[in-house]
Amino acid sequence: DGGITQSPKYLFRKEGQNVTLSCEQNLNHDAMYWYRQDPGQGLRLIYYSQIVNDFQKGDIAEGYSVSREKKESFPLTVTSAQKNPTAFYLCASIRQGSSYNEQFFGPGTRLTVL
Amino acid sequence: KQEVTQIPAALSVPEGENLVLNCSFTDSAIYNLQWFRQDPGKGLTSLLLIQSSQREQTSGRLNASLDKSSGRSTLYIAASQPGDSATYLCAVSDTSGTYKYIFGTGTRLKVLA
Description:
The complex is a heterodimer.
Chain A: E1 4-7, E2 10-13, E3 19-25, E4 31-37, E5 43-51, E6 54-57, E7 64-66, E8 76-78, E9 87-94, E10 103-105, E11 109-113
Parallel strand pairs in A: 2-11
Antiparallel strand pairs in A: 1-3, 3-8, 4-5, 4-9, 5-6, 7-8, 9-10, 9-11
Chain B: E1 4-7, E2 10-14, E3 19-25, E4 30-38, E5 44-51, E6 56-59, E7 62-67, E8 72-77, E9 86-94, E10 101-103, E11 107-112
Parallel strand pairs in B: 2-11
Antiparallel strand pairs in B: 1-3, 3-8, 4-5, 4-9, 6-7, 7-8, 9-10, 9-11
């Protein structure tokens, strides 16, 4: 079955630690996105990538970093510079060039700072 | 800057009712609009996508309409069921070619048995 997987489902971070969230898709989609969701708020875009080895900052990129070495993978690193990282993180992908540009989401990773 | 608003923020209805969820956006230059469902602690499930040239889309008991000129979309749910209880989000993508979506804050729906 095609889809997007995110791991781990739950992640705990100590102060000063960097942590990496995994996002993998086997949909052969070109574009991938990372969002952050806080209680009572909509999704906010962190980073996105439309092609391998290229990515762009979203609205709230400070304290985060990404890489896109393979089409299938778009890991997100939450660095110690992110002062309030506790949130639900969602990865999404879109097949560019289609007439619909429908967005598909993974199951999410919940990050908690201890 | 595009802003997306969803009203009401929460809604409780008895089972069997037909209901309407609203989504409004400030910039009518959109590429498409997508409605999602989110269950607690889960990812988003795509329900319906409406291209900017379309007026509505239907899937089962769901019907979504789009009035781009007035910046509005509605999601109509017919004969609601307890299993429809979830948060419903709408999102619009712009015409820049980046395929970025801007999300509303959602409507939390509870259907009472």
